[in-house]
Amino acid sequence: MVLADDSGRRLTPSVVHYPAGSNTAPLVGIEAKRSAHLHPASTFASIKRFMGRRSSEVHESEIKSAPWKFILDGNHPLRVETPQGPRLPEEISAEILKKLVAVASHRLETEITRAVITVPAYFNDAQRQATQRAGEEAGLTVERIINEPTAAALAYGIDKSHTDARVAVFDLGGGTFDISILHLTEGVFQVLSTSGDTQLGGDDIDSAIIAWLLGEVRGAAGDLTLSAEQMRRIRDAAEEAKIRLSTSESAGIILPFLTPELSFETTLSRENLESMAMPVVRRTRNHCLRALRDAGLEPADLDQVILVGGQTRMPMVRTFVKELFACQDFGESRGSLRVGVDPHRADGPVLNTGTDPDEAVALGAAIQGAILSGALKNVVLMDVTPLSLGIETFGGLMNVIIPRNTTIPVKAGEMFTNAVDFQKSMLIRVLQGEREKAADNWELGQLTIEFEPLPRATARVGVQFEIDSNGVLHVLARDTRTGKDQIVEIRSAVDVEDEAVQQMVESSVEHAFSDLAHRRWVEAKQRARETIDATRAGLEAYGNQLDESERAPIEQALDSTLKALESEDPDTGTGDTALLKSSLASLDDASSALAEIMMEALSEEFLRSRGLIQ
Hints:
This protein is α+β, with helices and mostly antiparallel strands. About 40% of the residues lie in helices and about 25% in strands.
């Protein structure tokens, strides 16, 4: 169930106000929201957008629109200024969690020390780590971090968990957007795919309304400069009008004494609101189509589309989703999941609006808590990782260890070797992304493993990736000869803007053919260099055992292979792969006699080393 506070409110606004004075406790929720008019610079809303981000990742538009002051310091974690000193976004979020813990402890008459916390599906590792730290700062043991769309699906479908259904969860909240495709069968909730944008939500619609409202105000009063307090009043008026227009065709906006000389009044129609909101809502379309494609489904294959998040109360959002997924009439039955429906039916999925979109995620988190505590049986929650994870290998390629959309928790690893003679260590760059070139993906972290200097391809280093149930990545590298290992928990944020997450998959599709051509060239080039080196060494050591008729074709094939290598374009790093492979095949054929002599020599040397021959 969703617990209400002493005033009967079931929703706590994610707003924190810091009063002056270091010994004064922050205000949280509705009390903090009321303080925003008088103290906008010390009142923080939608702080979740900034969790786990570096100073370099904050957009100029975000800095200008925020009423508070950011403390920016290059690639260091972002902080904000409060009357009680600098604060990380997760420290502010911790105050909200403390408030929720206090409400729950009071209502349940027991101390609350453990929690399940939800995050947007497209939160990266740094953002999930920040969420975990916020929970710990609030005095909680964070038992599990789960994706918000997955939690919503639990809330909608738990009473029908024996069904077989494919469900899309469309989650448009205040600051983030997620779309997840899940398969529910025999008590197992498996995430098939996910997509989204951590910088897209109702706040963007509010910003569009505010821009319109500012134009109206300045049209009535001329070009005037507004204070942070006045801007906060305009922002609140815009949000309130948007909420009223979910049930009304028009909403009056009244701002008495906005300035000493101006009391402003206007009307916003639903039609006008929808024209401003549509560019924001339309940005969700590509994410939805991508999630369907990644899951290998068409809209008609879905049984339901579930709406989550306060913005889905807007009629135009519901209409947009209904048309995008070709849904039937709205399904109003609470938590209904149809059984025994042909997945290839022509009538399309049901648009399910039966559960309060503001409460569905919290209900799902509570259900996950019940699963973990053992109070709820026969239900399993299986999530996925949104992007591939791997390491850079010789030649600048990305070697994927955990592919995108792998069910988590998961553990996977591979064995690697040294690419250079007698190197003493191996630098392991941990990458995230979908491109073939390491440089086109994101570096999450590094670790170095040292080992005994050995000839090329002799050392053995095992690399293991483990993603735990909270979506946190742990990387282990081990020298198999000595058992010495290095372990790192990836905490650093990806040093790119958050919007780049959604662009990564699009980029991989756009460059799929050129990336594949590059990988094939690099792999062929590495094999060519190894073959050239081995052939030259063989000629130097055993060339005197060859006839001129055997040696000349080898040298000609070597020249042809070297010329094929010269076909590489320095700008693209790709050459004529077909020519290179053909040259290598000719070199293999030409050097067959030399290879036989070398194998006989190696066999003789091995037998002699074992004392089997003199």
